[in-house]
Structure formats: C-alpha cells, structure tokens
Amino acid sequence: MESTTPNETLVAARPSLLNSRCSLLTDQVFPLLDLLRCLVFWPPASDFIFSESNWRVLFGVSLGHRDLPQANCLLVLRLLANAVAADGPRCLAPTATDSSLSRSLVTVIDFVPKLSQMVDRIKEDITQRKQHQVALATLLHNMAVLAHLAASSKIGTSPLLTSLRVIPSLCIRLNLSFLSLGPNHGPGGITLFHPDAVFALILGLGTALLSATLADTSDEIVKARRVRLISSAAPALNASAQPTSQGVEPNHTVEDELAAWEKVRGVIDYWASTPTCVPKVRGAAIDLLRLLE
C-alpha cells in the first residue's frame, strides 16, 4: 500500500466530506458552511470549495434554493465576502499570471449580476435580518475595492481586469437599491439597518464611483461623470425607463437624469443628516456628497 503524507490524506478526504455533508437536509448543512467560510483563506481549500461542481451544490442549498434558507444564505454570503478578501490580493500581485485568476473570484464575479436580479426578491425581507445586511454589504464593498485596486493600479491579469470592468456599475446599482430602503420608512428607517452594513454600503458606493470615473481630466468633468453615473443607476430612473426596442438601452432625457440625481441626493442626505444615524455613517455619507458636489 502506498503511503500518503498528511496533506495528501486531507486533500483526498475533502471530496467525500463535502459530498456527504451536502447530501444532508438543507437545514442541516450550515455547520459545514460555517467551516468553509474560514477554510477559504487557505488557497488549496479555496480552489476546492469553488470548483464548479462543489459551488453548484453550495449555491443550491443556499442562495439558489427556492426557500432561501436563512442560515445557509448568511454563511454563503460570508463565504463569498471572505473569498474576495482572501484571493483578491493573490490575483493583484505583480507576479500574477493569467492562470492565477482563482476560481473563487470567477465565481463571485459571475454571481454579482445574478445578485442584482435577486434584489427585488430579498431587499424587503433583509430589513429584518441585520447579520445578512452586514454580510451582503461586506461582499459588495470587497468587490468594489477589488475593482478599484485593479483599475487604478493596472496590476492584475488581463482576464481579471476584463471581468471586473462591469463590477463598479453593478455595485452602484445594488448599493443604491438597499440604501434607498431607509428613506422609504422615514426617520424610523435608521433602526431597520445595522450601522456596519450602511457604512460598508456607503464606502462601497464611493469606491465604485472612484473606480468607474478615474480622474483623467478636470475635477468638474469628473464630478459631472460621477453624478451622471450614479443617477443612471438610481432605482427610480430604472423603474420608469422603458427600452426603445429589444436589447437596446433605455433613452434617458436630461430631465430624467436631473430628477434621478435629486432622488439619489435625497437618499444620501437621509443618511448624512438624520440625527439618529451613528457618527461614522453620517460622516461617510457627508464625504460621499462632497465627492459628488
């Protein structure tokens, strides 16, 4: 019988462990998910967790499940956020090659557009689940930071830079969608959100704006680009605009964009001026307004 090293034994055991655990009922798999969100910081484990077949199983018992089991969804959101924090620096290293693009980042980048399609389904329910808010906001913040670092430093592989190109606009749209829920509930809307979640959403929104509008011209032109970009992502504008034809982007008039900007400014000002907001949230919102005005 051939001998194996301890590491080889562990690697050989992992497939059977994952398959056996995920064959359990959906409401019994959360201890494994809790373990995986920690193991993802070990590169070999990350590559295994986010292999195509394994991720399909993990997604199916959490965010892809029709009932959206709450514990599983929370832990998988944390897993995704940790994966970006763990594997992002590896792919941005000066020594990274095209083959260095980790499977976890490919998975997360592919997932973010799907998350934008899930927003209408989860955003009202998420006001009742503050830990989910923090996990989701952390994921969006980490993605915005990764996209900004890749775009501003020009460090990273070509596949990574290409894949991240759409992330800032998606983060802007998603962050605004969740931040706009607060004003819908008046001053009491502050209590529906975890301060850390709102803080991360505002930071992610500002970071996404910076990466999407790198300062290559005058400050006035850059600010105008930022205002137009954030206005085009406003939930009110997207809800009212109709495509001109199939597959063609909606036409927005100047009046539409001005109205959308007023809506966006009102959302940010809500978090900047409501007295019951914690200081760090108000400060971040004030800084975001300065970035735009």
UniProtKB/TrEMBL annotation:
Gene3D superfamilies: Leucine-rich Repeat Variant. Pfam families: PUL. Residues 1-255 form the PUL domain. InterPro entries: ARM-like (IPR011989), PUL_dom (IPR013535). Coiled coil: none annotated. It comes from the Eukaryota. This is PUL domain-containing protein. The lineage of its organism: Eukaryota, Metazoa, Spiralia, Lophotrochozoa, Platyhelminthes.
